[in-house]
Design goal:
This protein has about 90 residues and is an alpha+beta fold. About 35% of the residues lie in helices and about 10% in strands. It has two helices and four strands. Strands 1-4 form a two-stranded antiparallel sheet. Strands 2-3 form a two-stranded antiparallel ribbon.
């Protein structure tokens, strides 16, 4: 008994493969970038949450860490080439 073989290419809908979404935030500048900051699943991001949690508690500390890394290299780089972008 022989089974028929279907040689047609199957179309796979990518949305069927991944059913969850992920929200991330990151700051990118000329001197570097922050780590990815993931928003917890199910959190509704409104203006209040963005200011109180994402920006104040997570993004600003991460941005300051990037700036500090830049300022640490200031002694090796002529002033104005890179580090003037680090002022917060």
């Amino acid at each position: 008994m022989h089974h028929a073989v279907d040689n047609k290419k199957r179309h796979i809908d990518p949305s069927r493969l991944l059913r969850t979404s992920v929200m991330v935030s990151v700051a990118v500048s000329q001197v570097g970038m922050t780590e990815l900051i993931f928003v917890n699943p199910g959190v509704k991001v409104n203006g209040q949450y963005y200011c109180d949690v994402l920006l104040s508690q997570q993004m600003l500390p991460a941005i300051k860490r990037v700036a500090e890394r830049c300022l640490l290299t200031k002694q090796y780089v002529a002033y104005g080439e890179i580090c003037h972008f680090c002022v917060l």
